[in-house]
Amino acid sequence: MTARGPAGGVTLPPKPSDRGRKARPSGVQRAAAERTRTTIGRRRVVNVVMIGVTFVAAILATLPLIFILGHLIKAGASSINPAFFTEIPKPPGETGGGMANAMVGTLVLILAASGFGLPIGIGAGLYLAENRGTVIANGVRFLSDVLNGLPSIVMGIFAWQFLVKPMGKFTALAGGIALGAMMIPLVTRTTEEMIMIVPVSLREAALALGYSRWRTSLVVVLRTALPGIVTGALVAVSRIAGETAPLLFTVLGNQFWSTSLREPIAALPLQIFSFAISPYDEQHSLAWAGALVLIGIVLVISLAARFATRSRFGRGGD
Amino acid sequence: MAATESPRVPRPSVAPNAEAPAANARVRLKAAELSAFFGSSEVVKSISMSFRDREVTAIIGPSGCGKSTLLRCLNRMHETVPTARVAGTVTLDDQDIYARGVNAIEVRRHVGMVFQRPTPFPTMSIRDNVAAGLQILGRERPSKTETDHIVEDALRRAALWDEVSGRLKESAFGLSGGQQQRLCIARALATRPAVLLLDEPTASLDPISTQKVEELVYELRQDMTVVIVTHNMQQAARVSDRTAFVLAGELVEFAPTNALFTTPSDQRTEAYITGRFG
């Protein structure tokens, strides 16, 4: 549909200075030049419209977060005070109190989940990267992708069935394991991908120095891939930090201080949930404040992930 | 620049060997009917040749002729690639490195290797890069002061000490490409190997860095066996005592460098060094 001149390029209308010297363009040439002008005009319009459409889509993509943050600040910021970070919840009907135990509980759960999920995930990722193409590796990779898509409530039910029921009570440990299991597939895949981008030449250099295969993997390959693996781990942590469904079936929640892995423990998502469905306005605004703090924690972890990659990779390099 | 000279006029400025190499030099490394495979394709075909002590042996040939694979069979690196296989024997000081019970890791400690592109470990400092090969020696691992001495010695031998002595703790990635390659040579030298294999060590370097590495190779031959693979015939003429010409996996001709470049005995060698193919 584009009009082309004899040389194959787009025909441009003659410059004003050319008009007097050259022979007048024939009717056919004039029609072609006219068509070119309208085509270029139409392309400009389409270009502007498409830029506008994608710009609006980009704004719409961030709008939910902006609305949520705005509402959380409006509804919850008034309840955020020193007591919110230092006190445990007051009984219903009383004013004041905070979510200190839930925040600590969430941190304990994150630590327990990381302690369970990270070693397994990183180890599995290392195995997948070192044994590419084998039947076992392909099977593990496929199953890990399936596990990644597993609804979190299913994970909670399984943790209840196989951990809470045999132990006879709700425990922080069961919740940590359920969350850790959700981290495994994510950590496995990012570890595998980060290890795959370590150049083969580096591996060969280590082998040629007399490094054994496992030492090459641990000392050279894993260490080189470490910044990327750390990022993957932090992304996984920020994803499980707000999970509620698996906790409902495993840690139950706790109105009092507890950091024991063998007892029910409080957690921010659970506390938000129980306050949000309570009939008291005081607890509602505490729930909003809790949600705001939870988003803040996730935001800090995401920023830490970005910082971890930037500062490590920023050091020289090809 | 020497690189522009014709291979017919060898013996340029850094020529280590004005006269023919001594015929009685001790054989350090020896390949006998060595074949190497990737899957079912044979890329090195029953090559037999000896590498002598205190000599530089160059292996030349067109791209894909199997010269790098031949080199990688000499320190058992070939077998690290899936489906790769080796037949025949390679002896280092009369010990077959492919014999049952010989550990490939042990072999690689005695036969060092430097690759086409510099491969410093990005997570380690300059010092730790050079010391990397020492960290795995188990009970024989040198103390910290000993390590410092070995690192300095290796960097001096690699002609890099004066350029990096003030920043040993900095990342090796801050060095230039030529410095990185000399760092890799220092790293290979730190474990005091008997043989050093160089796989096109200057292919990714500029002419000045290339010259430094070539001078270094000249120095190294005073106390070790050096094997260098290169697709640059002028380089082979400049640095080596003996040259092997490999074509399609076969050893066509192996002779003192001077003789091979001036009076090749095989038609194919003559065709290659005069630039008629390859």
Description:
The complex is a heterodimer of chains A (318) and B (278). Chain A has 318 residues and is mainly alpha-helical. Chain A folds into two domains: 16-60; 82-313, MetI-like (MetI-like fold, Orthogonal Bundle). Chain A is 72% helix and 0% strand. Chain A has helices spanning 16-21, 27-76, 82-86, 100-130, 135-148, 152-167, 172-196, 200-208, 213-240, 245-248, 268-276, 281-313. In chain A, helix 4 (100-130) packs antiparallel against helix 5, helix 5 (135-148) crosses helix 7 (172-196) and helix 11 (268-276) packs antiparallel against helix 12 (281-313). The radius of gyration of chain A is 30 Å and the shape is flat. Mean pLDDT of chain A is 86; it is low at 1-9 and 312-318. Chain B has 278 residues and is α/β, with parallel strands linked by helices. Chain B has helices spanning 67-73, 104-110, 126-131, 144-157, 161-164, 177-189, 207-220, 233-239, 257-262, 267-273; strands at 27-38, 41-52, 56-60, 84-92, 95-96, 111-114, 195-199, 225-229, 242-247, 250-256. Chain B is globular, with a radius of gyration of 18 Å. Chain B starts with 26 loop residues before the first strand and ends in a 5-residue tail after the last helix. In chain B, 46% of the residues are buried. Chains A and B meet through helix 8 and helix 9 of A and helix 2 and helix 6 of B.
Give structural attributes.
A: mainly alpha, MetI-like fold, 2 domains, 0% strand, disordered N terminus, disordered C terminus, B: 278 residues, alpha/beta, Rossmann fold, six-stranded mixed beta sheet, four-stranded antiparallel beta sheet, 10 helices, 10 strands
Poorly predicted parts of chain B: 1-19
Category by helix and strand content of chain B:
alpha/beta
Number of domains of chain B: 1
Radius of gyration of chain B: 18 Å
Number of helices of chain A: 12
Could you give a short account of the major beta sheet of chain B?
6 strands, mixed
CATH class of the largest domain in chain A: Mainly Alpha
Shape of chain B: globular
What oligomeric arrangement do these chains adopt?
heterodimer
CATH superfamily (homologous) name of the largest domain in chain A? MetI-like
User: Beta fraction of the residues of chain A?
Assistant: under 5%
Strand order of the largest sheet of chain B: 6-7-8-3-9-10
Mean pLDDT across residues of chain A: 86
